[in-house]
Amino acid sequence: MSNFVVTLIRFGVTYGLASLMGFWVLVGSVILVCRKGPRWFFSKKVRETRPACMQDSNLGSHGFLRAQDVRLHYVAAGSCSKPLMLFLHGFPECWYSWRHQLKEFKKDYRVVALDMRGYGESEVVRGVQNYEMKKLVGDVKEVIAALGYSSCVLVAHDWGGAVAWTFAMDYPDLVDKLICMNIPHPHRFVKHISSSWKQIMKSWYMLYFQLPALPEYLMSSGDYSTIKNAFHGKKMGLRNRENMTDDDIEAFKFAISQPGCLTAAVNYYRAAVRYPSKLRHDPQVTSPTLLVWGDEDGAFDNDVLVGHDKFVKDFTLKKVRGASHWVQQDAPEEVNEIMREFLG
Length: 344
Prior knowledge:
By secondary structure, the protein is α/β, with parallel strands linked by helices. Helix content is 44%, strand content 15%. The protein has an 8-stranded mixed sheet, sandwiched between helices.
């Protein structure tokens, strides 16, 4: 069978399933309009200035740097004479998801939390191809150099974690230690989802996000109500809800509501399907690695954890009982303690 035919079949299956997902999401949206009314559904607040919680000087100072073809925003604290600890956030978040860790580790590290490309106050680059993995990995490499360092402790969650795993495989000399949170090794995830209907059902949104425009439009409805649902909802939300205040949710709404940001965030998923990274012959991570895992994750099946030691030479797994996907925000004190023990 020719490559063209295979590509055509893959395209048809992908977008056929995406359309089916989109149909059911639309049905749910219509029900929501009937329940809450059109005024609520179409409401959208303009957010031009950072909320006060993002201006907290205890978190650090705001800055910008250039990496590849994009201007990136970051928040940094701690002495430049200290080792670098670089934080990468997930979807649909921003640098602010590391607020607890910035405060905790700034005494011992130069802590820097990025807004990844397209997110928050970082530059939005048009085109799905600008969000493929090699671009995201390239950003991290250039950020480390732009900050004046030759290596870092790399800490990452969710999509940031996918980038961090890949970066550690590509540039092992630039990663002193790797800490990932609620994101499996990419090879382990691919193997798991290919044989687990449970994981396929949890990952349905990845197909839905392949549709043009519709995911962004519906996610922004009800003044970005999806953000509150993600953090406070029954399935995905924090189990310790007091750790995600209304002010915190407003911070994430500010970040995702910046012009073009929501499309950029969804483009990470589009690029992953359109421009998938090739599976490696040797997907080993040689840097000492800690995987922190909230065991009540609505996005990942816990069975995905099995077999990680095959991909990491020096591997430590720490489960946080009763914590959600947003583990570093859900149980910050426990996560910080786990990190400190690992870092030594």
